[in-house]
DNA sequence: GCTGGTTGTGAATACGTATGTATGCCATGA
DNA sequence: TCATGGCATACATACGTATTCACAACCAGC
């Protein structure tokens, strides 16, 4: 069934090691032999077994990517550029969705079946990074990190983004603002909230707890949060959402509840997913380069695998930009 | 760095094969020895190297999944259940996005680095299945297939779904209908169009070429198609879209163009993605069980890998159901 | 005390590639 | 003519696991 380098060697009249070297363009093999080997390999339709190669080189050229819920529209926009960048760097992608099942994930990660891991779902209380560290498995954080020093991470200036939004809302005259923030055990959730709060406070605007909701970065979080926020007294005139997916949940809930956006309520998201620009949403949001965020993470991981990296950690931070569209307006 | 079964053997005072057997619950090893080995493995934090295992067993417990554009909202809803089902069956998922680059894909697929492949992007003119066949690599089609006999495929009753839509539109009095169908080299595109046309014809309703657009199953296809369709004379009162993503493109274009849905135009999709139910769309569409479609493909592939399968091919077809929401109305 | 069957374990080996080291060959220069 | 050195290739082996086969130890039965 399987053609091996031995078969090629026999046909080409050389030894197996020569086949190995010839096909990988080792300069020590002469041009004539190389050509002979190439032809034999071609004739037999030989493809080197990556299992053999892996065992011999102790490198799999494979990288694991851990996400939670793939059907969340955010992740595909991370996974796609990540896949392509890794592919360009000669690595393949194993997709792993980490449910509560951390034990299983660990088992899968620690069997040397990949050279490194991209963690796109880190929570500040996750034990996984420590496990990886102990086993010497290279990993980087993507989008979220643990917030601790020494991390290798590709992230966004979340705090800055939160500030941008607060300043815009204040400039528009909003004094009663609300937030549907991400989970408190994620850095993305915390930092966006922090930046938002700090800049509000600088302008003398408060953010009271009954106008704050926290939850997973999901559609439903936004959809279900709206009624609670509207029940606050006085009701908020603007709401900053933890990300675009949450904001889209809020927009849909607003439509269902007959709340006019932006006349009755200003809604602002974060991420600027392509979907945010759709005509039905025209969502005002905070942009960052999600593709670059991912590619950067891929390159950082590959550098870490190769060991060409600052042992004290590297944290690559992408800037944010306010994107005004049609879901914000002056306070009424 | 890496702990091997030899290390465990040494600590437990047994031979390496005994470790291998004990940890995999081979009945030939005594309970006492098994326990001793387990303890040693635990103490050393031993995890079997999957590279060694792969080389020895010639099975990788890995499956490749080929998609085109991950950022298309359709794919995550396939990949997520596929991942989970495969995971439950003891397989891991390698994600591969196949650009025009077929050669690269082949190379990656044929190096024995996975036990089987799920093809979610088959076109009727793809050479890949033949390549896989020649190398004896098990594969199944998911959602799309080649339309040839002997395939292993998990698909939807596309023709039936197309018929459902045609009958509903006819019943609503639509006589000038349009279609934004999928690409002609996909079975999903062809079969939905076919069913739609056949049932229209049975009702004596024609579908003229200037009210037909074909293109990739993407947002932009729908978004860009609308102006062309509206230019037809007489303009259509209803449009059937190749899938929900296309329909959502049409809905957004309608909003931009000031076309009222469903008063001016009925729009119908296909797939019933969660997004279709969003308040901003309330898309009338054709439902099938996308999760089951994927899980079924996973099980079929695993059976094919195990060889427990009808050599003449197996084609699992899921039924469709019309889902009336808010984007259809009587013809004016 | 021998045979024959079980049961549990170890020795040897296969899997396919890559690599460190040795070997053979040839040209060069004295 | 022979030593030297560079070049191309072969030999041996490592990588970590699973498996085949052989072999002990043990027991039952005669």
What does this structure look like?
Two copies of one chain form a homodimer. By secondary structure, the first copy, chain A, is an alpha/beta fold. In chain A, helix 1 packs across helix 2 (16-23), helix 2 packs across helix 3 (31-44) and helix 10 (219-230) crosses helix 11 (244-257). Chain A contains twelve helices and twelve strands. The interface between A and B is large, with 53 and 53 residues. Chain A binds a DNA duplex (30 and 30 nucleotides) through helix 2 and helix 4.
Q: Any chance you could write out the topology, listing elements then pairs?
A:
2 copies of one chain form a homodimer.
Chain A: H1 5-12, H2 16-23, H3 31-44, H4 50-57, E1 62-67, H5 76-88, E2 92-97, H6 102-109, E3 116-119, H7 128-135, E4 139-143, E5 152-156, H8 158-171, E6 177-182, H9 187-202, E7 212-215, H10 219-230, E8 238-241, H11 244-257, E9 266-268, E10 285-287, H12 290-306, E11 314-318, E12 321-323
Parallel strand pairs in A: 1-2, 1-3, 3-4, 4-5, 5-11, 6-7, 6-8, 8-9
Antiparallel strand pairs in A: 10-12
The first copy, chain A, binds a DNA duplex (30 and 30 nucleotides) through residues 2, 4-6, 14-21, 24, 28-30, 33, 48-58, 112.
Keywords (chains A, B): DNA-binding, Transcription, Transcription regulation
Domain HTH lacI-type (chains A, B): 3-57
Pfam families (chains A, B): LacI, Peripla_BP_3
Strand arrangement in the largest pleated sheet of chain A: 2-1-3-4-5-11
- State the oligomer: homodimer
Mean pLDDT of chain A: 92
Choose one word for the global shape of chain A: elongated
Structural class of chain A: alpha/beta
Number of strands of chain A: 12
Order of helices and strands of chain A: HHHHEHEHEHEEHEHEHEHEEHEE
Q: Biggest chain pair contact, residues each?
A: A-B, 53 and 53 residues
Q: Name the poorly predicted regions of chain A.
A: none
Strand content of chain A: 15-25%
Q: Helix share of residues of chain A?
A: 40-55%
């Amino acid at each position: 069934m399987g053609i091996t380098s031995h078969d090629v060697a026999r046909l080409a009249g050389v030894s197996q090691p020569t086949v190995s070297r010839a096909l990988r363009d080792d300069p020590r093999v002469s041009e004539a032999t190389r050509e002979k080997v190439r032809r034999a390999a071609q004739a037999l339709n030989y493809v080197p077994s990556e299992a053999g190669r892996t065992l011999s080189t102790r490198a799999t050229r494979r990288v694991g990517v851990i996400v939670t819920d793939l059907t969340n529209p955010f992740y595909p926009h991370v996974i796609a550029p990540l896949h392509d960048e890794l592919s360009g760097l000669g690595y393949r992608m194993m997709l792993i969705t980490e449910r509560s099942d951390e034990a299983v994930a660990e088992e899968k990660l620690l069997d040397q079946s990949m050279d490194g891991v991209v963690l796109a779902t880190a929570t500040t209380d996750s034990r996984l990074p420590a496990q990886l560290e102990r086993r010497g498995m290279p990993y980087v954080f993507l989008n979220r990190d643990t917030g601790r020093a020494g991390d290798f991470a590709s992230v966004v200036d979340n705090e800055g983004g939160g500030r941008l939004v607060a300043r815009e809302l204040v400039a528009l005259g909003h004094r009663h603002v609300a937030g549907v923030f991400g989970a408190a055990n994620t850095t993305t959730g915390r930092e966006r909230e922090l930046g938002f709060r700090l800049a509000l406070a600088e302008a003398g605007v408060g953010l009271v707890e009954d106008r704050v909701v926290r939850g997973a970065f999901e559609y439903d979080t936004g959809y279900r949060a709206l009624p609670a926020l509207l029940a606050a007294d006085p009701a908020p005139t603007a709401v900053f959402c933890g990300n675009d997916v949450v904001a889209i949940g809020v927009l849909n809930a607003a439509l269902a509840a007959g709340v006019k956006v932006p006349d009755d309520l200003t809604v602002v998201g974060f991420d600027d997913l392509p979907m945010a620009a759709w005509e039905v949403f025209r969502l005002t949001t905070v942009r960052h380069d999600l593709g670059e965020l991912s590619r950067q993470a891929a390159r950082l991981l590959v550098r870490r695998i190769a060991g060409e990296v600052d042992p004290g950690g590297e944290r690559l931070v992408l800037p944010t930009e306010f994107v005004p569209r049609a879901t914000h307006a002056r306070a009424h």
